Amino acid sequence: MLVVEDDTDIAALLCEILENEGYVAVAVSDGDDVKAQLDPRPDLIVLDLRLSRGGAAQILRSVRALGMGDVPVLLLSAAGDLAERADELGVSAYLAKPFELEQFLVIVHRFV
Known about the structure:
By secondary structure, this protein is an alpha/beta fold. The protein has five helices and five strands. The protein has one domain: Response regulator (Rossmann fold).
């Protein structure tokens, strides 16, 4: 799993949650680091909508350009327009911050 989150505390927590479920998780903080973590191909990308460097749209374009458009993407954000943005970006699922652990895991298990 690839976690793209610029808040290091949230990224570490998400990775810990995923690892406790038996998954291998790698966190990166921006789009510059995403390409380096796409081999091996991730089973799921957990992507924060608003990153300090590079946005979700740019990251998704890069991932899709590399032929990985079928990799499920879980979009996370506290933005009020999250549903609209998720629809525009064509992601697999979205979850509003703050969220319950159970909600997160239900979505993860749906795709992996």
